[in-house]
Amino acid sequence: MGERTRQALPSVLSVLLSLVVCWQLIALTRDTDGTAVATAAYLEMLWGGIGDWPRFIEGAAVTVLTRPLGEAAMKAALLTLTGLSVAVAFKVGLFNIGAQGQMLLGALAAAVVGAHVTLPGVLHIPAALLGAAVAGAAWAGIAGALKLYRGVHEVISTIMLNWVAVRLVDNWLVVGPLRGVAEAGASISGTAEIHPTSQLPRLLGDSSRLNLGFILAVVAAVTVWAWLARTRSGFETRAVGLGDEAARAAGIPVARRAGFAMALAGALAGLAGAVLVLGTEGRYPGTLGAPYGFDGIAIALIGNNHPLGVGAAALFFGVLRAGGTRMQLLDVHKSFPELIQGLALLFVAGRLIWLAALRRRSTPTVATAAPPAPAAQVPHA
Amino acid sequence: MSLDIGAGELLAVVGENGAGKSSLMNVLYGLYHPDSGEVSVDGRSVRLKSPGDAIALGIGMVHQHFMLVPTLTVAENVVLGREPTRRGLFDWERAVREVAATCERFGFVLDPRARVDTLTVGSQQKVEIVKALHRGAQVLILDEPTAVLTPQEADELARVMRGLVAQGRTVVLISHKLKEVLGVADRIAVMRRGRLVAEVRPSETSATALAALMVGESQRAVTGHAAASGEKLPSDALMEAVGLPVRGDDGRPAPGGGEKPGDVLLEATGLQARGDNGCPALRGVDLAVREGEIVGIAGVDGNGQRELAEVLTGLRPLTAGRGTLLGGALTGLTPAQARARGVGHVPEDRLRRAVVKALSVEENIALGRHTGPPFARGLWIDFAGRRERAQTLLASYDVRPPEPTLPLQALSGGNQQKVVVARELDARPRLLVVVQPTRGLDIGAVAQVHARLREARAQGTGVVLVSLDLEEVLALADRVYVLFEGRVTGQFTRAEYDEREMGRRMLGAEQAHG
Amino acid sequence: MTLRLQVLALTALLCACSKQKEETPPSGASAPASAQQEAKKPLPVGLVIDVGGRGDHSFNDAALRGLELWAAGKRYEGGKYVDATPDDVRKSLPGHLASIASTLQPLPIQPVVLQSKAQEDYVPNLQLLVDRGSQLTIGNGYLLANAVRSSAQENPQARFLLIDSQVLDAQGKTLRLPNVRTVLFKEHEGSFLVGALAGLVTKTNKVGFVGGIEVPLIQRFEVGYRAGVKTTKPEAAQALMSVYTGSFNDMAAGKQVAQDLIAKGADVIFHAAGSDGIGVIQAVKEARAAGKSVYAIGVDSDQSHVAPEAILTSMLKHTDLVVYQAAKDLVDGKFTATEQVLGLKENGVAMAEVRVDFPGKAEALQKVEALRQRVVSGQLQVPSVPADLATFQAAAP
């Protein structure tokens, strides 16, 4: 327990620090009432994420709670899945910058299966999810194969595959062969709308967009955690990530473990795309601009690459970002939640440098060095 | 404690690992800061707050683990941090000239243009020494410098050290090899448990007396433990671990046990394999190992021993030759197959090959054996079984602290090695390949590792022992192959052991017959 | 103990905050107020703009102008609204709207604008505005069509305005909802005029078109443009070069294709490509700096200020007027869920003032004006789909 707390502490402190810094920034951008506006903006953000409790207490409909909670949960689900994607790859020692591209492919696959395949409900959702996972895994598999057979560094290949994915999906398939058709003269952005059978069921009916995707993300986090912590192959995966030579010497199939982890990473990112398409959008939108794949990197690092830590970080930032849009009501810029997340990442990543600097500071410097001399004396240590 | 080091003196500091020698030297080198007390140079009190200060004061250190950049050349490594420049750019030619001059001045034979990763360990050590001298070191601290050297190389190092002292430099030699210390030092400081227990001149003492001073209470501790766990620990192990002949009436080691030849475990002919750099490293090695014998592989570092060990454990593919290993072919062997057939492996590069330092001790004990009981049940890890086995092994091998959940990197090197040996022997291997099993270990640990290897032999395990420490090979092995440039240049049975002759073979002299 | 005190303090603060909010304009959904009953209080009107955001010098800014400056009489400055002067309003009016300037009176409304970070923010943003008592909620752009559909279905009591798109059902068929007014533009009519001008201006007899994503909406620009060029210079219509960049947010792509068109001899390039079009304008500007006589034609808003020398004119889409009209209807209690399709006649589209000089400018403008009147009067039907283009014939003015 103590050990876990110690590991989580830097992330928690970094998040708190970034909250304080952003609060200060909001306050500074105001001529008058800076701190009051900043506090009010934070409260808006909070109510936008966990439900508008003050209004509810004053007698507003229960939807003032369920809607924000649903939005927060959906963002958390997406961040969890992409965060897990990055974390799983990281566990095997690979840096998956490509969750964004994998998510795009997964979203497209889900949209295609959802719209162009006719299946009964019990099968349609699993089929669409499977399609998304396979598409994401295949996309990540390209980077994995390049790494294993050609030695191409996965950071380079996954970054480049992100762009390939954008060009392929957003700039060709979605506006070309797969574009949704509408009546003459009407314009549709994105692909055709999915069948109702493939829509992820909403858990709270019409009162919230909260849907099965959230459950899926939670299950994914727990499963990934159990796999890494409790199973033989999870253990092998961690061993490969922490010491591939030792793992090889121990008879662990290093390439197979790395390949599997990369494919799993891609599948998770692909599922994020599926949750977006099947859960809320109903189609692959004109462009999948939201950079959840890149956010996944931040979430994974803030979550210490621990599946449950990733879940916790995603939940927190899901709340922040679902609520963040409300800060605009107070004319605070929409991007502060991202800024908070970015700063938290910076603080987490900068922790080591930070510590090193502190340590150096604590050792006082001593003035002149005597000329080289062949005699040294160590009395009384 | 208090210690004076005179100018132009060769002082040896001996003691077990953990006795405080390294801490003391790290204080001198500015890596550690003393809680109390002070360091004076030339009678003036100084505060060493970083190695930079120490270097400025003329104190240089050669660490046990070399601090070299493998992909850079000798010259680049030596000038690193104070590179000569011309018009703001690194002046490579001048660096080479300067380093060549330093080498010549102190009598080192080194090619400044050679890449460090192509050099032998002995040469890399010279690079470290040249680096310190190049920075104007007046006081040179050498931490366990001979652990990896051949007798010839060790002799050469001794000459180098004497030469430096003759030029007025001060050398501090940290070692636990009493024989060489006695041969080279002007003065010997013995440390035990953070205290200076004696300062003697070589002429006034003997190896036995020094060993007794060094080991002190810990000897009782080790033998006491062995007695408690009901194991037979040869009382000579300690003597042997410090490089002294056991029962040495005629200076020749006593024959060990295991003289009953068993089934052939390994038979190989014409083994060839490439090294990491793609050049042939094994050029036709014939080898046989039977049950219940320890086969030593001696040689200067970089003559194919490591590659041979990797071939036998499935880590390196053969390019030619064939062999039978525990009933299967040697060709196409994978590490998993090797393990499945019963090959154990204690590799040289512990942190890279044997353990995953960020994993816990118990996870490392499971590593490689994690697919079956007691470490796994089906697809799942068996946490209880693993914990129980880990605790048993930690107690039996006296690993300290006996804490299975600690990350392995929290253990000292000796305890890490105990974990590796415990793991490999616990698997009851039929063939055990050990490489440099005692490098950097303290006396107690060395004694224990040796005892365990003998015990394995007694139980019928065939052991291939690769060590750069010839004395270790002679002490343990029933037969010895000498490797030079990927070929067997000598084979000796225990009756034929001759240290000088082996040294010649290690440097390439041919033998009339195999 | 301390913690509990803090929690109490926090709760007190919250209550204070929410009370305060009750008193200020965007009144909550908990107190739904009929517009007419509380005439003194400005009516909240919500606007969700797409991911392009505020300050795009184009589509979003036009809607914001209509809502904030014209309808509410406010200027947005440094994150706050300040009262605008009549002069501000006058300056924002293009020449051809001068006649209606007097009718643009500030209305008692309170604008509430939400920008969206991503596609999936549209629904919660619309919902938030509805929850906060927005009497009219505007979705600006066809990207919001789906979001407006689901919000309108979930909140039948709320009123919506969807600009630039119809409401479409899952099969892509037009869906009429009783609480959504939709507005489409006859982009082809405005494009027809700028095409006619391009045909009159070109010397190389080669003109170009750069589209964003090839959807029917953008095709209408191209078809109208082609028809215009065909009317004034049939030989240039044959050689008209049309390229689609496949995006609306890639300036580099727009610049690249425009440079290619210029190299092939085009001397007038019309863009309907969002941010890609800014790249088109840049390419034209650079070509002019290199001594070529090339013009670009802007889109949606008057883009003359981006490169005054290089912009021949712009094809305007008056989303600002549409927003103003909807707000006015709301205040007057006349808001209806109609399907509007606005062309030249309704001032939905227009050709912006020509601010550059070229030989024969006055004559050319006369000819274009003549064409405009023929379209307005219904004498001339401008084609809107490629299929009708081949049969289109119009007498040159």
Please characterize this protein's 3D structure.
- The complex is a heterotrimer of chains A (381), B (514) and C (397).
- Chain A has a single domain, classed as ABC transporter involved in vitamin B12 uptake, BtuC (Orthogonal Bundle).
- Chain A has 15 helices and 1 strand; from the N terminus they run αααααααααααααααβ.
- Chain A has helices spanning 2-28, 34-50, 53-57, 63-91, 99-116, 121-150, 154-173, 212-230, 232-242, 244-249, 254-281, 292-302, 307-324, 336-349, 351-362; one strand at residues 376-378.
- Chain B has 2 domains: 10-215, Rossmann fold (3-Layer(aba) Sandwich), CATH 3.40.50.300; 264-358 and 429-506, P-loop containing nucleotide triphosphate hydrolases (Rossmann fold, 3-Layer(aba) Sandwich), CATH 3.40.50.
- Chain B has a 6-stranded mixed β-sheet, with helices on both faces.
- The longest helix of chain B has 16 residues, at 151-166.
- Chain B is globular.
- Helices cover 39% and strands 18% of the residues of chain C.
- A 6-stranded parallel β-sheet of chain C has the order 4-1-5-6-7-13, sandwiched between helices. Chain C has a 6-stranded mixed β-sheet with strand order 9-8-10-11-12-14, sandwiched between helices.
- Classes of the chains: A mainly alpha (381), B alpha/beta (514), C alpha/beta (397).
- At the A-C interface, α2, α3, α4, α7 and α11 of A face α1, β4, α4, α5 and α7 of C.
